[in-house]
Every structure is written in C-alpha cells, then in structure tokens.
Amino acid sequence: MVAxxxxxAIQTRSxxxxxxxxxxxGQGIITFLPLSSQMREWSDRQKLVEFPLFPGYAFVRLVxxxxxxxxxxxxxxxxxxxxxxxxxxxxxxxxxxxVQTLLANKVPFESYPFLKVGQRVRIRGGALNGTEGILVRQxxxxxxxxxxxxxxxxxxxxxxxxxxxxx
Length: 167
Hints:
CATH class of the largest domain: Alpha Beta
CATH superfamily of the largest domain: NusG, N-terminal domain
Distance between the termini: 33 Å
CATH architecture of the largest domain: 2-Layer Sandwich
Number of strands: 14
Number of domains: 2
CATH topology of the largest domain: Alpha-Beta Plaits
C-alpha cells in the first residue's frame, strides 16, 4: 500500500520563506508559499512587493517519513516541521485548498488573529462555493475566517454578496 501525500507546515528562518520554497521545489518537493502583494514606497519610487501571507512558514506536500523529513530539514533556512516535538502533523487538504482558492480568485482579505471559538460556516454559490470557515460579526459586517489550524494563522474575508450555511 502506498502511503498518502499530505500537506505539512514547516517553520523557516525569518525572511527565508521564498528561498526555502525555491530550494525545495528544486529538489522536486511540492511546496505552497501563499504570497500577498503590497505597494511599498521609497523616496524615489513605488513598487508592488510580494510578502509571505504567513511569515515564518511554508507548506510542503509529501509522503512523510524519515528520509523525506531529513531532506526537508537539511534545506537551508528550514527550522523544523510544525507539530509535536518537531514531528510534522498533516494539515487537512481542504484547509490548504481554501487558502489557494482565496488567492486564485483574488478575493480581498486581511490577516486576522487565529480563533478557536465561533460557528463554522460554508459559502454557498459563487467563486468561493464550498469554502468553510468561522463566521464573525464586526460592526454588523459579516466576515468569514479561513484558518490553517496547525500553524494558528487565519485570513478574513468580507461576506457581502455571499450566502453562507452552517456546517
């Protein structure tokens, strides 16, 4: 029986996320480094710069075992797998898929503190159909929080124009 491929979060050295992702891809390892574009100003120019959505983290998809673990850990800039005692814990595919869907559809979002409480909801219809998260109310403005629970990081999107249902 073939072991399944799963997503794992890896912690990187500060500001090494892009370098780590490139090196791992060069080794044939599937990576996901969600990036956010922000306009930065200098005295002489403005430039659109891409920043990691979850600073200090990247994601790898692999069959977790001693050889693959060591291959990742030997990559320059990798600190450790996120999990118990440095042993990686698989991230459910749908949590990564939801973040990828959000980025692919260029839905406006903002980083949001990780939440453990609140009602889980699913978006019905539209480009984000099936996306699940936690419903939050702020000033009567509905928001959906999409979380990658293992690294305790979340993104928020405004639900204006989307219909949601309880999960």
